[in-house]
Every structure is written in structure tokens, then in C-alpha cells.
Design a protein that fits this description.
By secondary structure, the protein is of the alpha/beta class. The chain has 22 helices and eight strands. The relative contact order is 0.09.
């Protein structure tokens, strides 16, 4: 998980600060030293760390902070505000031309994930109402064109390619004409990468740029390469001129230093982050939300947006009616489980909920949910509708069919029964209001008493 180490360190520091009724300069120096070490361990550029600490120190030493009633919380706010600024300050979106098609050129080194990112970007833009065309401009890497065609086929998004020529400029021009004729309002050029930066690569990219005049040049950077990612970004920006950055493999980088350094070094915004291998694992980058996640303050807005994308409103209304009239059976449980899985890993979702980071031993193994799905799928339709008929012999059969043990089946059924009880309580509007009040106050134990 991105920023895991940094997040744990900073959350520990902010918890100490919040409990302080008074902060001295000595306290502040100790805190800033810890923040500095946390950032350096996260592989953030040293110069950036130095500037970051200096700004916080200057603001935190102000009389308004040291004399305030809650100096600890004031310092936490300063850290958060500066973290947001470091990540870009405000959201940065793609600038679409008023005279389509908008041409987006993806550049980067080989292995950064450009081809998959091209598909992910096309997918997210289509959800926003665009009609994208993917263009295979990588004529050197073996099977690069085929890979983009496979990605396009999976997403049902058209791909333009011309395997009869190695002239990338010609391919780009032909793609623009195709997009105009087919009424595609966005063109995404998947350009060739290299194992390292070289002048031949840069000249080819400059030729494409001067030929089709892309509205956005987005650099795709592998965040797991740490400081190398920052160096690559700086080189591409100096030699080609980029408009923004897409960070890939952010889910695999526990440090996150690239995300915290790249904006400051290039003065170009991070526009999207890829957080997994699936073609829907991409999201717009929000500096304020990312800062909140790092500091353990949650990211409820992102959860809501994912839910809105994933859950069908008509199905939700049907489920609500069914809950009120018949109850919550295992078919409903399975349907909701599959919907939730589309939103991403459960552990990443829980970390977006304010306060959940404070709960110790919050280790959610997503494979456990695959087991639950297998258990339910091994049941007959009658067993799903009437779980009470699950006697010992049926549970043995289900365990064999799902590749689990009888103990695991029993454990799931106990959990399901608890869920049913909760659903019955939620039928009452009065109880729902009580639950919300307890959640808001963090009194999770009180919910079970309702």
C-alpha cells in the first residue's frame, strides 16, 4: 500500500501533537526531526524535505500557534496544508479542447506501464462521457500493438494501428483523420518507450509533438523506481515539455517518495494514479484527499465516488424493498460482496474511513472474501434462500465443494447471522439514527448494544 511506512510514522507524530496542551520550541524541533526522518525514509528528495521542514518550522513558531488553545492541532493542520501543497495544492484535470478531438500523448520509459495506462485512461474518460480512440504508436517493442489491441478489446474501445509502416508521425496523423471521421473526441497516443532515456527517443517524440500538436503530454512514471522516477520526470520535462504525470504501481510502493517529489521537481501536476492491475484501477489525483489518507484522516469522498460508480441505483432500491419485506438472504449477501469487490481491496477501503487507522490489528486478507464467495457458490439456491436448513451433512458438502473446511463454513455462517441481526435493526429509522451518532463519535461498542 502506497505511503504505508510514511503514513504510520506521521500518524504517530500527529497523535502525540494532538495530545499536547502546550508546545515549546524544543518539542517542535523534536517533532520536525521525526517528520524529516519519516520523509527521508519514504524516499522523498532531500532538498524537498529540507524546504518542507523549514516552511513548517517558520509557520509553527508563529505566536498564534504557540499561544493558541490547541497548539498541537494547529501544528497538525500546518503539516497537512504543507503536505497538500507538496502534492500539488489543487486538483489538475485534463484540458479538453473546445474543437475535438483532444489529443493526449503518453510518454515514458519502457516498463512504466504506458500501454495498460492508455487503456485505463480511455476507460475512465469514457465514464466521463468521452468517446476515446487508442492509437498504437509503439512500433518497436515486440507485441506492443497486439497488447494495446487486447486492452482495447477488453474495454470495447477502438484501437488504430498501421503495421505496414514504422513511421510514427504518419501513424499519428492517420489516427487523427480516423478519429475525425469516426467522431472520436479523444485520441490517446501510446508511444514507444526505451530502457533508458536517449536522444533518438526524444527526437521521435518531438517529431510527433510538432506534427499532431497534442493538447496534453502526460508522462507515465513507475512510482516504485523512487528517486529514478523523479529524475526521469525532470529529463522528459526539460527535453520534451510535459503537461502532467500519471503515477503507476502506486499500490506496490510502500514509501511513496516519488509522488511527494515529482510535482515539486518538475512543477507539473500529478493528474492520475494507477493503483492496481485491473483496467478500472485508476483514479484522478486529489492532493487534499491523498494528504488526508497519509495522515490517517480518511478519504470518505473517494469511497462515495467509487460506490456511485459501482452500485446500480435500481438494484439498490430493489434491495431496500426486499430488506423491508423479506430480509437479507445469502443471494443478497453474494451480490453485495461482488459489488464491493469492484470498488477495490477491502483493506484499502477501510483505510479511507476516518478513525479506522486507530484500530489495532486491522489486517484484512482479501483472499478471505474469495473463500466466502466460493462457500456461497457451493450452496444450492434453496440453501441460499433458507440458510437455516444447513445441517452438518450439507455443511460438509459445501466445504468440499468450496475447497474450505467445515470450521470455515461455520465461521462464515456465524458472521452471516450477525449481519442478519444488524439488518433487522437497520429496518428501524430510529436505530439507524442512533448508529450514525455512535459512528460519528467513534463509539463502535455502543452499536452492538442497540
Amino acid at each position: 500500500m502506497a505511503f504505508e511506512g510514511l503514513s504510520e510514522r506521521l500518524q504517530g507524530i500527529t497523535r502525540k501533537l494532538k495530545g499536547k496542551a502546550r508546545i515549546t520550541e524544543t518539542d517542535l524541533k523534536e517533532v520536525l526531526r521525526e517528520v524529516k526522518l519519516a520523509l527521508l525514509e519514504a524516499d522523498v528528495n532531500y532538498k524537498i524535505v529540507k524546504e518542507f521542514i523549514a516552511v513548517i518550522q517558520e509557520k509553527a513558531l508563529g505566536q498564534d500557534v504557540l499561544k493558541s488553545l490547541t497548539p498541537g492541532e494547529q501544528v497538525v493542520k500546518i503539516v497537512k496544508d504543507e503536505l497538500i501543497d507538496l502534492l500539488g495544492g489543487t486538483d489538475s484535470k485534463i484540458n479538453f479542447t473546445s474543437n475535438p478531438p483532444t489529443i493526449i500523448m503518453l510518454v515514458g520509459l519502457q516498463g512504466s506501464g504506458k500501454t495498460t495506462t492508455a487503456g485505463k485512461l480511455a476507460n475512465i474518460l469514457r465514464k466521463e462521457g468521452k468517446k476515446p480512440l487508442l492509437v498504437a504508436c509503439d512500433v518497436y517493442r515486440p507485441a506492443a500493438i497486439k497488447q494495446l489491441q487486447v486492452v482495447g478489446s477488453q474495454l470495447n474501445i477502438p484501437v488504430y494501428s498501421n503495421e505496414n509502416t514504422k513511421d510514427v508521425v504518419l501513424i499519428a496523423k492517420q489516427a487523427v483523420n480516423q478519429a475525425i471521421s469516426k467522431l472520436n473526441d479523444v485520441i490517446i497516443l501510446d508511444t514507444a518507450g526505451r530502457l533508458h532515456i536517449d536522444e533518438e527517443l526524444m527526437q521521435e517524440l518531438r517529431n510527433v509533438k510538432s506534427s499532431v500538436k497534442p493538447h496534453e503530454i502526460l508522462l507515465v512514471v513507475d512510482s516504485m523506481t523512487g528517486q529514478d522516477a523523479v529524475n526521469v520526470a525532470q529529463h522528459f520535462n526539460d527535453n520534451l515539455g510535459i503537461d502532467g504525470i500519471i503515477l503507476t504501481k502506486l499500490d506496490g510502493d510502500t514509501r511513496g517518495g516519488a509522488a511527494l517529489s515529482v510535482k515539486k521537481i518538475t512543477n507539473r501536476p500529478i493528474k492520475y494514479v494507477a493503483t492496481g492491475e485491473k483496467l478500472n484501477n485508476i483514479e484522478a489525483f486529489h492532493p487534499d484527499r491523498m494528504a488526508s489518507r497519509i495522515l490517517g484522516m480518511g478519504d470518505v469522498l473517494s469511497i462515495i465516488e467509487r460506490a456511485e460508480e459501482t452500485f446500480n441505483e435500481e438494484e439498490a432500491i430493489k434491495l431496500e424493498k426486499k430488506l423491508k419485506q423479506e430480509g437479507f438472504d445469502l443471494n443478497d449477501y453474494l451480490a453485495q460482496l461482488r459489488q464491493l469487490k469492484k470498488m477495490g481491496s477491502f483493506s484499502s477501503l477501510l483505510k479511507m474511513i476516518p478513525g479506522m487507522n486507530k484500530i489495532k490489528d486491522l489486517n484484512i486478507d482479501d483472499k478471505e472474501f474469495d473463500k466466502i464467495e466460493a462457500i456461497i457458490c457451493s450452496m444450492t439456491n434453496e440453501e441460499r434462500r433458507k440458510p437455516k436448513i444447513l445441517n452438518a451433512s450439507r455443511r460438509i458438502r459445501i466445504a468440499k465443494g468450496s475447497g474450505t473446511s467445515v470450521q470455515e463454513v461455520n465461521k462464515f455462517m456465524n458472521s452471516y447471522e450477525q449481519t442478519q441481526k444488524l439488518m433487522k435493526k437497520m429496518k428501524s429509522e430510529k436505530n439507524i439514527n442512533k448508529m450514525l451518532k455512535h459512528v460519528d463519535k467513534g463509539n463502535f461498542d455502543e452499536i452492538s448494544k442497540l
